[in-house]
């Protein structure tokens, strides 16, 4: 089981930036999909960005393409999400997640390990 701890959330104005980090206790000898998800009050949790720790292929929700950048540092076992040009609709609780890599990190389903979440609030 992967232990995940998010940090870096906060409150910013629209157009601002935040960088989220996630410390992940993944095995260095195995491949994983790592992802960021978010959930606004009263709404379903949605996938935001994903990455393969071996191939470093990235995937983004259409709503954040061009604004968010996901990255993973294999040496430090840290997952990051650089969020630029933030919009009020980006507000929510952000979670990092992990699952063993099989063939693709394209899909948001089947993530098995989750962090506790970090709050992101974007005001207009």
Describe this structure in words.
With 124 residues, this protein is mostly beta strands. It contains no helices and 11 strands. The strands form 2 sheets. Strands 2, 4, 5, 6, 9, 10 and 11 form a 7-stranded mixed beta sheet that branches. A 4-stranded antiparallel beta sheet has the order 1-3-8-7, with no helix packed on it. A hairpin with a 6-residue loop joins β4 and β5 (46-52). The mean pLDDT is 95.
Q: How much beta, percentage-wise?
A: over 45%
Distance between the termini: 39 Å
* β-strand number: 11
The gyration radius over C-alpha positions equals 13 Å
Note the main sheet.
7 strands, mixed
Structural class: mainly beta
Contiguous helical run count: 0
Overall average residue pLDDT: 95
> What coarse outline follows from CA principal-axis ratios?
globular
Low-confidence segments:
none
Structure summary:
It is built from no helices and 11 strands.
């Amino acid at each position: 089981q992967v232990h995940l701890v998010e940090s870096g959330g906060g409150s910013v104005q629209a157009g601002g930036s935040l960088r989220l980090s996630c410390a992940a206790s993944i095995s260095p000898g195995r491949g994983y999909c790592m992802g960021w998800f978010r959930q606004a009050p009263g709404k379903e949790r949605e996938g935001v960005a994903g990455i393969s720790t071996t191939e470093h292929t990235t995937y983004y929700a259409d709503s954040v393409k061009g604004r968010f950048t996901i990255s993973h540092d294999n040496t430090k076992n840290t997952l990051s999400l650089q969020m630029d040009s933030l919009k009020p609709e980006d507000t929510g609780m952000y979670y990092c997640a992990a699952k063993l890599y099989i063939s693709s990190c394209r899909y948001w389903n089947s993530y098995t390990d989750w962090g506790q979440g970090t709050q992101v609030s974007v005001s207009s």
